[in-house]
């Protein structure tokens, strides 16, 4: 069975988090005790263990020192870099997808390639990289709205969900552009609902 980009990235993050959790348990520490030893809020420990947040090299060092497992530092950092390299791959897809968006929308070229790259970027980014996922998702929705099937552009709903947590002028500008492109198809119920949701997100930002 094939593995989607999102599930591959998620599994890699979760595997790293599992190793961190096992180190903590082997050291006989609770999450709050490890947080106290590292100077973190206890919720940070949970986020790292569940792969919601990616650890920095310093995070790994502090974690291993608190667990008296310094010999694990180098290997865990190498594993974290593997996860980071996966993120960079999807970031590259998103960046090139954004560039192809201009060609597709303004010159009618490379529509499918641009959409494919943006879709792969959206699929590859997990909750750890929600900003990148939101930016690519908004562009994918506006591209689909312009040169594809407007009803399929409701994929922008996930991007809107992600964008609610952002404070980004660029994201806001892209959302306004998506709303403008959707105006032509406002009689389609799904598109009209998307425009309504965009207004709500922008009003709250």
From TrEMBL:
CDD domains documented for this protein: HTH_XRE
InterPro entries assigned to the protein according to its UniProt record, in alphabetical order: Cro/C1-type_HTH, Lambda_DNA-bd_dom_sf
Domain of life: Bacteria
Residue ranges constituting the HTH cro/C1-type domain according to the UniProt record: 20-76
A GO molecular function held by the record: DNA binding
Protein name: Helix-turn-helix domain protein
